[in-house]
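Exercise (ungraded).
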Amino acid sequence: MISSEREQMTIPPDGRPPSEQPKWRQDFPVDWPQDHYVARRDFTKFMVLTSFAFVAGQFWIVVQNFIRHRRGLPPIRRIAGLSDLTIGRSLVFAYPEQHDKCLLVRTGENNFVAFGQECTHLACAVVPEPEKKRFLCPCHNGSFDLETGKPLAGPPRRPLPRVMLEIRDGAIYATGVEARVV
Amino acid sequence: MAVPSHMEFFIDPNRCIGCQSCVQACGECDTHKGHPMIHLEYVDRAHSTQTAPVVCMHCDQPTCAEVCPADAIKRTGDGVVQTARKPRCIACNNCVLACPFGVPKMKTEFQLMMKCDMCYDRTSAGKKPMCATVCPSGALFFGTREQVEQLRPRSTPVNQFRFGNQAITTKVNMMTPKAGHAEYVDVTAAMNEGAIGKEITLNVLMNGLFSEKESQ
């Protein structure tokens, strides 16, 4: 069955049988079915290499995990004083690294929320809109809930990473980041 | 799906009236982006209004595919030579220069060789090619051998061609006079000998020149 598909239909101009033809005629056949023919060896090679790629990917994940555990917990850092923010106002701060921008929003007298500012869709900076109780991503009109950071509308499917907060001695401290999937 | 083997293409250049219907019909098709793939050639423009339609002859040993350095031109199982594969074609023009019938067209705007593929989307679904459906004089005919035998009792289909020393067998047939007993059609013969029959010369301009000279 396979051999008949492999068989050449177009006869080369010199008219000699396929066995006497140069090697390139087999590699570059004129016939469409032959051109689409995948040899068992090629298929096996593809499968083996793909499996190797998957194995390497798994190891990469393990290494990443290991590095993350080595790094330990993020530092506790003071963001702002309680009196720095009035209700409904927000503040941009960097936590835990210098380039990880986050948003602190005061939603009530003693209620503060903080989320990473990167939209989980394509990493645009989200804009807080406390009067509409949402964070808006202007790139693709995605929006997140102001209280929970969960996606409400638009392309994003994952919630914003939440920054854990603590209030001590009239100041707000960031104590950690909770990256969530749902 | 494939083009059924009992359906064949017959070209009868004798019957061509140069109406351009086939060119227009071919150009309307979206599968080749509105460009006509058929050629309507003047046989001897200076001396005659005779035209001849040229579609791809779908050679058994396609010269275009032989010369393609990018392995882009393929022939399907039913013997139809297809337009160059877009991901492979490098727009090198080799096929355009090599084809004995001058069929492939180089579309530089697409960086792609495009050619007549016998309306593969239609013929593989049991329909006739666009040009054959519109030809009013029957110069392009698509059907069975029996049908053409009945329609053209004085002609016989030939699918053997010579281009210099190259012998070509094609899928598409050329109608030749039965009385001539032609074994093959010489593609380049017209280059060596003049057309048979009465020559029409438009000598209006020459007359004018002479009369002017005489008056001086």
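Further reading is listed at the end of the chapter. For now, observe: The CA atoms of residues 65 and 119 of chain B lie 19 Å apart. Chain B touches chain A through 13 residues (CB under 8 Å).
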